[in-house]
User: Fold Glycoside hydrolase family 4 from Halorarum halophilum.
Amino acid sequence: MYRLAERDHRPAADRARSLKIGYVGGGSQGWAHTLINDLAQCEDLTGEVALYDVNHGLAARNAELGNQVMGREEAVGDWTFQAHREMDAALDDADFVICSTQDPPADTFVNDIDIPKEYGVYQPVADTVGPGGTMRGLRAIPQYREIAATVRERCPDAWVINYTNPMTVCTRTLYEEYPDINAIGLCHEVFQTQELFAELAETYVDAAEDVDRGDVEVTVKGINHFTAVDEAYWRGHDLFAYLDAELENRTPLPGYEPGDMEGESYWVNNFQIAFDLYDRFGVFGAAGDRHLAEFVPWYLAIDDPEEIQRWGIRLTPSSARVDDADGPDEMAQYLDGEETFEFSESGEEAVDIMRALLGEGQFVTHLNYPNEGQIAGLPTGAVVETNALLTGGGVTPLCAGELPDEFRSMVERHVTNQETLIEAGFTGDLDLAFQAFLNEPLVTLGREEARDLFADLVAAERDYLDGYDLDASVLRD
Amino acid sequence: MYRLAERDHRPAADRARSLKIGYVGGGSQGWAHTLINDLAQCEDLTGEVALYDVNHGLAARNAELGNQVMGREEAVGDWTFQAHREMDAALDDADFVICSTQDPPADTFVNDIDIPKEYGVYQPVADTVGPGGTMRGLRAIPQYREIAATVRERCPDAWVINYTNPMTVCTRTLYEEYPDINAIGLCHEVFQTQELFAELAETYVDAAEDVDRGDVEVTVKGINHFTAVDEAYWRGHDLFAYLDAELENRTPLPGYEPGDMEGESYWVNNFQIAFDLYDRFGVFGAAGDRHLAEFVPWYLAIDDPEEIQRWGIRLTPSSARVDDADGPDEMAQYLDGEETFEFSESGEEAVDIMRALLGEGQFVTHLNYPNEGQIAGLPTGAVVETNALLTGGGVTPLCAGELPDEFRSMVERHVTNQETLIEAGFTGDLDLAFQAFLNEPLVTLGREEARDLFADLVAAERDYLDGYDLDASVLRD
Amino acid sequence: MYRLAERDHRPAADRARSLKIGYVGGGSQGWAHTLINDLAQCEDLTGEVALYDVNHGLAARNAELGNQVMGREEAVGDWTFQAHREMDAALDDADFVICSTQDPPADTFVNDIDIPKEYGVYQPVADTVGPGGTMRGLRAIPQYREIAATVRERCPDAWVINYTNPMTVCTRTLYEEYPDINAIGLCHEVFQTQELFAELAETYVDAAEDVDRGDVEVTVKGINHFTAVDEAYWRGHDLFAYLDAELENRTPLPGYEPGDMEGESYWVNNFQIAFDLYDRFGVFGAAGDRHLAEFVPWYLAIDDPEEIQRWGIRLTPSSARVDDADGPDEMAQYLDGEETFEFSESGEEAVDIMRALLGEGQFVTHLNYPNEGQIAGLPTGAVVETNALLTGGGVTPLCAGELPDEFRSMVERHVTNQETLIEAGFTGDLDLAFQAFLNEPLVTLGREEARDLFADLVAAERDYLDGYDLDASVLRD
Amino acid sequence: MYRLAERDHRPAADRARSLKIGYVGGGSQGWAHTLINDLAQCEDLTGEVALYDVNHGLAARNAELGNQVMGREEAVGDWTFQAHREMDAALDDADFVICSTQDPPADTFVNDIDIPKEYGVYQPVADTVGPGGTMRGLRAIPQYREIAATVRERCPDAWVINYTNPMTVCTRTLYEEYPDINAIGLCHEVFQTQELFAELAETYVDAAEDVDRGDVEVTVKGINHFTAVDEAYWRGHDLFAYLDAELENRTPLPGYEPGDMEGESYWVNNFQIAFDLYDRFGVFGAAGDRHLAEFVPWYLAIDDPEEIQRWGIRLTPSSARVDDADGPDEMAQYLDGEETFEFSESGEEAVDIMRALLGEGQFVTHLNYPNEGQIAGLPTGAVVETNALLTGGGVTPLCAGELPDEFRSMVERHVTNQETLIEAGFTGDLDLAFQAFLNEPLVTLGREEARDLFADLVAAERDYLDGYDLDASVLRD
Assistant:
């Protein structure tokens, strides 16, 4: 549905002026706090952050915190924060727009996880693909259409930085609604892979010490959370040369037993699946194993949830997705002065990216962006995870060549599903969405069970599915 | 791996001369008897049939029967039959080569069916895709390389007509080994679909009576046994216009209960899956339901083999694949004169096709042939099921446009698997073959179970896997 | 600009009923008389012909003639003719629409030929490419948009048969305006090539006598008037096998002298260029030499118009393009009864094509139609000259493979120019049109001369360029 | 002919070790002196330069000069130079290979320029396209096959840096002979365009002073010497925003008169054609006008050589291509100590590029490299001029999107010609080469004159056309 446009020429602007960042979402704090942290430590950029959340109170608290932090002596940044009641106002004339949104987990995410479980479908994350990811995508598409339309109206040249999952579907929606949008999607999963390769360098390369993950060049190609890396270099040293030796060390795969992960963080990652994909397909899986597992049927073909621990990961239970109601929350403690907001090195790249896009130096990283041909063999216009060069002239994808054929086919299936979801979301057609649902690798159910699961999910989340045709034939008995 | 060549120009020949048909295989009689039947009733072509089978005795008996039948008064054809001990001799200077081969079922097909069943993987046919189809493909590739090499050597301009399954892999192997070969693959599954539409015409079109399936034009696109039809016309009447009404009549789907098919033929077909695919994906499945079911996971996600009867089909047990040892066989009875070989209208098109390729009139039908672009969205060079025009100038595919996106993706997955199998077969690489095996929709097993099943199948059939590397890493514990 | 759509399903219709043919243009009589001739001899179709021409008087006279002829005893056809003052009425509910239009030659065609001549640019025909063809295309695009829009409104399922040049641009315009239109373009140039090959068969194939051009199968690929044939068969005999011998007979090329063609018809054709293209590029030029010569620079790089006679053709002078004013015209003589309209075998295929599209049998021919992939290497959606199967289900292109690379590039240049003209015509942008003009092979002028020629042509024909921006920068001094 | 390979993984190497640069050619000194200059000023790389030239004496003199210069006090570099009599020895185990070769101009280049002139075909440079460029390409292909074969044998992982024209054909030959070669082609023509945009920045952007050309980012897309730039940024300022104003200042185009360039350098460039291409096609021509003019017919459609001066350029006469025989040459004066080799800032990037490829930092520049999809709409595998990122992991092209359609078609024609020349060069087929020759835009001759010119060129240079079939039909009378 995407048509490769010639690059347009963005109007010259004095990039040194005071900036405006519009922020959509963030009520749940995670990424908003990171932004406050990073801007407080940023010496060369200055401006305002305009916050908008469907829950205005949360946006207002973020603003209050931001201003409080910025007023502290050790904050070198010069930024003001303001909450707005309308998205239009928050985005008006913005230079950058940051998106980080989520529907209330208790009404949505919990169902995305628990209803499929009743059918024997287990999802470690449930936010990208599988039954849960599909529902999350359907809910997000109308929301991201609105954001794109607001950008077109209020700040057409702004750079939009999306952090929301499902990353591919949200970012793709932005481009489908407003093809001339300047949007990228950021995710930090690949950082883990770079860290692993940094360790490999330290282990295998003579005289390599304290290798920084940022110095490890990886060729990223795939889609968010199902990305492959087939090249990794550190200062000209080919780190793939050591991968077979490392695989040998880690054999046999899987290397854990059910129960081994009890007590571990839900986010634990042991690269078991990443290495298994390398072993069988020749490319290294470059996302956490809990994500990778959701894109093919064979890691989650389990009868009991504990079995997935054999691959060194855990299922995140739905309870962990609902805010803990006990005790004063972190935010309240900050605002009350009970806790001090500690500065840290976040490792996030948003500020570096903004700087590069303002013309202050070149920056090479991986991000989510429409395919212009950089990943040969995947459709043009599909949002892919890809290396790119960022400069004052914008984002330029770096050619990454082809994926091995069977791996490409595994990715292609999800690209097709995501494109189908976009079309279903724009037309409100749940019969079409069900085509993608049937083709989800995790949906290993019989034809009728698959239908029932889909219908159950739609029924449970129908309040969040405005604009869809709830009389679709698939929903009829 | 296939490169679209410019058409070459076949040498002019006096087509009216006596013809030679080389026949590879046929020992198991089915198709050989059909050929004898059809040639005996063919008035305008004449020549010899040179039979070759790895079991020479069977070829000799076919020759004996052929000559006996041709000597009968009511046989208008003028053909002689001779069995050869070498393929070279049988194919030397042939005008046509017919292939119809099979490994001894007791050593192979039985395992293809029964071993996966131990893992809960049920296959109604097991000859095209799924674990069984994969093994059959691996076994066939070296055999069809040899046939292609013999054609190149002995009769480079001959037309090769393949009837062997897995149809796509066998035909694709012929082209991979000898890219300039003139080869087509024939299968009669689509005839059923034409018959269904002929019935629809009789039911819904005013004054339509005794509609002949041959007068129903269907636009065929897909791969053998997983073909879609998205257009059907009879004398300018669009038969798709009646398909929704017919679907309504047949609702709900599935319409049977476990046990309903007991006592039915293993080949029973009720178009339940064909209509369900139409209902969900908008194109009509144009092969028997027992084939269609093997290409997606959701019809065979069953715990008990009887459940598949809900879709109006049965599983063919492996016992039905081994020759019945009781009593004198049909062939013996014919040769002894106890039974008379009765002429029938076979419905097969081979003789019509030969006639057209000899320059005697144009003929439009569906067949299996490399994709030159006739099915947009599938890879060039992949063997697809497609309409084509046959004339004295050869085979010309008819453009069929694109498949709906999700259906295309379902087909693409198998095309990728088949291309991977070809590469595995040509290099002897079973690790590569296992990539395709993992991506088979019917392999809904866990990662290790999938490996075990593959290893078990290879172990059971290793005598038929000469030329493969049996030390592949996937086969090691 | 064209998007490959899935085939739609035309509504079933009782094709045996009385038909309506809408006829746009035809005032200049040529093709209208052929239609009257063919319908008068057509036993199995019946109905009315609704005539519309911008010059209503001419349409009325055609109607009068049609009815007069149909009333004659020897006319077996049963058709009535009526002239309409509005295109809407003529096309309302039509089953077929025939287009055959031309602007008044004295105001347009004459300039197309004579103004370039002043710049040393000679065009034998000037109706397809070159400066003249470019202008003709610019004039035609708005007219064919109107026809397409009327079809969409009045007879959306009708089959539109276009005879007007520039064939590619007119047919392409129909699809650009109304992508779901059912339109084909017919041209008889390739018939000559079939006749040549019929003669080759008679000469070189044993026992071949009275070979009918219709029995010669040629693989047509290219664009109208610049089509290549790379295969020709007659009853299975490969006629390309004799082409080198025939080339040898005709060597050296060119084989004529200036002056040799004096007194010959302007339409004389000696296959000199067709064979020269075969000699140098390996494919046979399948249009009259006077057309082929206009698509590359090297046959018309002449200082004196007589030089082109060396290739066995003549330039048609502009005077031959204006109606002869002397004496009563043919039409008047028919209507007055002074002359009798004699029936002939026209050789045109329109009636056969209508019959096939009504479901009465299959018909294979060559025509102009959007590329769905049948000509690999040319852009999808471009209108190409191609073989096709016509049945009650519609038009299905036959795959023709690739052109040799340098020949393909020569065609590609014109395809690009034609697509550019379409865009220029739809936006009214003459600066864009000038890009195509500069890239016309016959425009071998300096940069400023090229501009002057374009400006002169636009100035001379501005009355026929409504809807174009005459303030384009290229038109300013 | 090129097949997009998956990237291979180069063996890790200790990049800090002493390097070996193999140098092929350089006898004519220009680029060899630049290399000596640049290495003498390079502090961080060290090693040896192994020189090979078909004229060993010239290589030996370069070695002598190199060692002499490196011995001077102000030379901070640490390199030794040695001349070899065999290419094998010079390239054995090299880390980098630099190619800069030329046939003796008096026997070749002089004919390339002067023989076409006799036919009225004027070429300002004659080294890339046109009749002269075609001949140069035909001569170079066997030579670059030999280089590629030697690299494959002696230093398969080396990076090959080509400076020789025709750049595209030479670099493409390297990849055709040895598809896994690591090769790039460097040309400094685009630097001029960056300088022009640097001046635009200084003129139009507030507070921009002393803008460095290296800080101007341009999106380069096309083929060497016919490259377009459609984006230019300086520190986030879009410089294309000022291009229309600058065009207005420079109007009318052309702005010179015949004779205006007398006395100017042959290399004078006034961006007249670069701006005219921008004016008409919307993209800026990014090579010197003398090169750009050779790729389309309309700037050189002149009757008198002086006319080209209207576009602010001169034709380089063949006499300027032959070494001046008068007086002692520069080299002799250096070696004799009569002249001192002065260090300068060369502006060349080879040393920066080597450094980046050794893993010392990232470097973004433009170079000539196979198309992996970075320029959408041009064929995969064709050597294109493209932006790329250079790191220790190799060369990664940067996506540049599509060219405007008519410009793309102009480029495509040359890409096709270059691919045809490669095929002709590898098969020795001059009939095939003549297909490309006929399609050269500067060959605006009649069909027979074109043949005669081609035959004359081949006859004059036959001593340099070993390996071609001189009995090609095009060469017969």
